[in-house]
Structures are given as structure tokens and as C-alpha cells.
Design goal:
single chain; 341 residues
Length: 341
């Protein structure tokens, strides 16, 4: 059996996949604003690498008009628009051949219906791209993991051990599947996701992200009144006491800034940690508040040599995520194995 591994997000990309939002019941009257934020994110990433926006049938013309000519739009059946979680997770073998792992998707434990089209979208995308499909019966969302590309994966117990995902699998079984499908050799389990993250049950992409081998950026709210003030410190303590798959002590970079916005009468947190690393850049969700600049500076320090760009995404936060949640990178394959994206 060919050995594949999931590369780190800072590795070279052939492009980025996104999905166009059309679900009226999710956006509660702010769907138009959500579309504009998705388009802004797509254009920001397209300044660094090719972006393919997948729109449901009959919505491609609107998506193209809003996103502009720097973004490629294709039509495929979709339920929702969170490709970090429903799109395939791409892996490479030792020769640079690319495949996509098609995990099961159940809309974060059945929170939204229908979700059958999103459970099928990985297969359709891989067929469209001409990429080998690796099937897994385990339910897994890409936002629930972060990898260093060198054997280490970080996740949260709050999400991966939740009974609404894989009730028939214990921790050992989940680790075995992650090892088999993503080529990791060490899984670091953090106790907590975000307390307010009831939509995903605590995805790690609102908590921490690998920024380089041995380097992790973490959310560490400096406001004692923040609901995750103590929880994120407990996570940090685990990281400080952990070595990666190659035995390195982890360097931890704190993002103390937090930002809240009001959307449709609800207060939502815009997570600075929920960013996308592109070729030569980092696209970061911001709230249009003074603390944005300090957070961007911290993230820039963790990703030297990359241009850091903030995009206002409070409505995406209202929908349940951030820039990372609505994107999925396609890692670069060897030239002869690169289909058009």
C-alpha cells in the first residue's frame, strides 16, 4: 500500500477550494452579506494562488459576478459552504503524487439537514480534479485537526471524542485511522475547543495552528472574563509539556487578542486563529476593531516572509466559522501529477 502523508498548510499549494453560500436557513437574513464576505476572502486568496469556487447548480453566474475574474467558478451539488470540513483532505506520497482522503461528513453531528450532498462532495471534487480517492468510514472535519507535515497532528477531545461523530470508535481507533489515512505518527489531544463553539463542538482551528515544524500559534485570551480564559491556558499547558513526532519541544506563540461583533442581534467572536496560509501570504479574519492590528502582527511574526492580509468576516463568524473554515488547500503535486484546478 502506498504511504501518503498530509502536508502542512504552509507547504506549496496548487490552489484553494471554496464553496459558495446559498443556505437561507443558516444565514438568517444575512445571506447577502455572507456572500460578499466569501467573495472578499476568495479575492484576497486569489492574489496569492488560484482559487476555485464551487457553486450549487444555477448559482455559478452569481458567484462569478461577485468574485470577479481572478476566481474560477464551477458548479457541483452542495448543501452548505464549509469546505474545510466537507472537502477532501489532500495527501502526498513520497514521489509527490497527490490523493484525497474522503472522510464521512455528518454536518457536525447532524446539526443541519440535509447534508447528503456535502457527504458526497469530496468524491465529486476528486473526480473533477482527476485525483485518486482514498475512502474512510470515519467522520472527520478538516477544521478539527492541524498537522505539521512531519508526523504530528493536534486535535481536541471536545470534538473528536464527541459521541455525535464516531460513537463506535474509541480514542485508539480514531488515532489508528488518522495514522493510516493522514500519515501521522503522533496525535496530541488538547482537552478543549472553544466554549462558544457549539456549532463544531470545539474544532482546533479556533484554538491553535501549526505555523512551522515545532511551532504552534495558540489563542490565549488576555481578558479574564473571556469564557475560554482558563480553558485555553489548560490547552497551552498540554502543548508546553508535549514534544512533536520528531522529539522537539513545541514553541508556543500566544495570540492574546480577541474580537467580538454583533450580527443579526447576536454577539459573535471573530477568531483570529481561523486563518488561511496561502503561497506567500496569510489571510486572517478580522472584526474591524483596533485590536485587529496587534493580532495581525503576532500572526505575521509566526509566519515570517509572508504578507499578512486581514479580511472583515463577522458574518462568516455568525454562520459558525472563519477564513480557515471556508477554504481547503490543494497541496502542490509533482508537475506530471497536477491536473487543472
Amino acid at each position: 500500500m502506498t504511504a501518503f502523508r498530509m502536508p502542512a498548510e504552509w507547504s506549496e499549494h496548487d490552489g484553494c477550494l471554496m464553496a459558495w453560500p446559498t443556505r437561507e436557513d443558516l444565514w438568517s437574513g444575512v445571506l447577502d452579506e455572507a456572500k460578499e464576505e466569501y467573495a472578499q476572502v476568495a479575492r484576497a486568496i486569489a492574489a496569492f494562488e488560484p482559487v476555485t469556487m464551487v457553486a450549487p447548480p444555477s448559482h455559478g453566474t452569481e458567484a462569478q459576478a461577485r468574485c470577479g475574474g481572478t476566481v474560477t467558478v464551477i458548479e457541483l451539488p452542495l448543501d452548505d459552504s464549509w469546505f474545510r470540513d466537507s472537502a477532501p483532505l489532500f495527501v502526498l506520497d513520497g514521489d509527490g503524487n497527490r490523493a484525497g482522503v474522503d472522510f464521512r461528513f455528518n454536518a457536525w453531528g447532524g446539526k443541519h439537514h440535509p447534508y447528503d450532498a456535502d457527504d458526497r462532495i469530496s468524491r465529486l471534487l476528486l473526480e473533477h480534479l482527476g485525483v485518486e480517492r482514498i475512502h474512510s468510514e470515519m467522520t472527520l472535519e478538516g477544521g478539527s485537526i492541524t498537522v505539521d507535515g512531519e508526523g504530528t497532528l493536534i486535535t481536541t477531545e471536545q470534538c473528536l471524542l464527541h459521541p455525535n461523530r464516531n460513537p463506535g470508535m474509541d480514542r485508539d481507533a480514531i488515532e489508528a485511522e488518522l495514522t493510516s489515512r493522514l500519515g501521522v505518527s503522533k496525535v496530541v489531544w488538547l482537552p478543549y475547543g472553544g466554549l462558544l463553539d457549539t456549532e463544531t463542538d470545539g474544532h482546533v482551528d479556533g484554538v491553535c495552528a501549526f505555523a512551522a515544524p515545532g511551532k504552534v500559534v495558540v489563542s490565549l485570551p488576555d481578558d479574564p472574563a473571556h469564557p475560554d480564559h482558563a480553558r485555553m491556558r489548560a490547552n497551552r499547558a498540554v502543548l508546553e509539556a508535549t514534544t512533536d513526532a520528531r522529539g522537539r519541544q513545541l514553541e508556543v506563540i500566544d495570540v492574546p487578542q480577541t474580537a467580538f461583533s454583533e450580527v443579526a442581534g447576536s454577539e459573535v467572536e471573530v477568531s483570529y486563529l481561523n486563518y488561511y496560509v496561502a503561497n506567500g501570504g496569510v489571510v486572517v479574519p478580522v472584526a474591524g476593531l483596533p485590536q485587529d492590528e496587534d493580532a495581525l502582527a503576532v500572526i505575521a511574526s509566526a509566519h515570517p516572509g509572508r504578507k499578512v492580509v486581514g479580511v472583515r468576516t463577522p458574518v462568516v463568524a455568525y454562520g459558525g466559522g472563519g477564513v480557515h473554515c471556508i477554504t481547503q488547500q490543494i497541496p502542490a503535486a509533482r508537475p506530471s501529477a497536477r491536473p487543472s484546478v
